[in-house]
Hints:
The protein is of the alpha/beta class. The chain has helices spanning 7-14, 28-42, 54-61, 65-77, 127-137, 153-165, 181-192, 207-215, 234-244, 265-278, 334-344, 353-364, 366-391, 415-424, 453-473; strands at residues 81-84, 88-91, 97-99, 105-107, 114-115, 175-178, 198-203, 219-224, 248-251, 281-285, 311-316, 328-331, 396-397, 405-409, 427-428, 430-431, 444-448. It is globular and about 70 Å long.
Amino acid sequence: xxxxxxxxxxxxxxxxxxxxxxxxxxxxxxxxxxxxxxxxxxxxxxxxxxxxxxxxxxxxxxxxxxxxxxxxxxxxxxxxxxxxxxxxxxxxxxxxxxxxxxxxxxxxxxxxxxxxxxxxxxxxxxxxxxxxxxxxxxxxxxxxxxxxxxxxxxxxxxxxxxxxxxxxxxxxxxxxxxxxxxxxxxxxxxxxxxxxxxxxxxxxxxxxxxxxxxxxxxxxxxxxxxxxxxxxxxxxxxxxxxxxxxxxxxxxxxxxxxxxxxxxxxxxxxxxxxxxxxxxxxxxxxxxxxxxxxxxxxxxxxxxxxxxxxxxxxxxxxxxxxxxxxxxxxxxxxxxxxxxxxxxxxxxxxxxxxxxxxxxxxxxxxxxxxxxxxxxxxxxxxxxxxxxxxxxxxxxxxxxxxxxxxxxxxxxxxxxxxxxxxxxxxxxxxxxxxxxxxxxxxxxxxxxxxxxxxxxxxxxxxxxxxxxxxxxxxxxxxxxxxxxx
Length: 485
């Protein structure tokens, strides 16, 4: 069944949509069509939604029906609206767009785009030798069926050893290999969370985790994070746990995405104890645990305080190594791993053997790779901070002690408008509302420092220019969409 937005609802979303005055003025129908495309780009108007009838929208906006008719016609011509007589009109995408790794719909010819929407590094030079070595190892697996629901033993041993070295004794039987961290989260939610179950998450939080929770129809409660270095308010976080008693808590204590906060050891211990007391299972995302900067000491793993199998840790190769290597993992109790394996059979059976062998060889040389990554990220972070201080001094940015992202507090609730304007000058941004619920966080912007220094400085220069233009124009200009789907 296709959902429908009423005229008054769409009018509220459109806000001040009218064409700009003066020489830059365009017809009202074109401005209205552009505003609808902007809502698609912002993710505030989903795909496949039936728009209101022309008369309904005209009455809600207090404009002529002719203007709405012309706007709908322009949206159909640009491929953003499909109409069928007697059935109405619903939102869609033009055929010249594709899905990017960050979930955005983007034009096919965007190769020169400076993409700050994806917080991931390019592959390290060690990847090719690891792939060649993995191919040489593959023949000893070819006589079997190739299905390893919890992962090949070499990789599980390597991952378990990494946890043990961090002070959390772990056996290979406590490890399941997955197709990335997102896949790990999906499997855990399938087992731990019934549809409609309660979940506590941080705000802001990782957009794809929020999408996974939405797919489970979870009832989400948020705990707001401070924009400064303090991050979690311990009393509020633990108080929310006691009051709401959610079935699952999803948190990112190690260089939280997107804020970069690092949860102290004392709060980790209290968090685990409170979760046990109220019957909440904790899913701890450790995607960035390998990337402390400036010699930052890491607290003990959150699971090291667990005595009742309440903590499930998930992680993967994407951030310290390469996003194209879809290897992640789950660390839990051995019985829980077996239950996860049983649930996995209905999803994808197992991870590719060749990819797992590549991961084994990369983990063999992980210290050298990670050290180089940390040095690279520290330089790029400082370059991005310097460029922001020089070009956008009104923005508040806390220097993160690890991870790959800055969380910038802007000088106004302009995040989505700025993202739309920036794409016109070749910079893709992930606006604040992508990291929250219900269109909040418009004063914030996530800025990863994973691009080369020259690209980061150039991107900030372009952002600063369009930020200035937003003030001069009086209101944002709508762009062709990079639609959030």
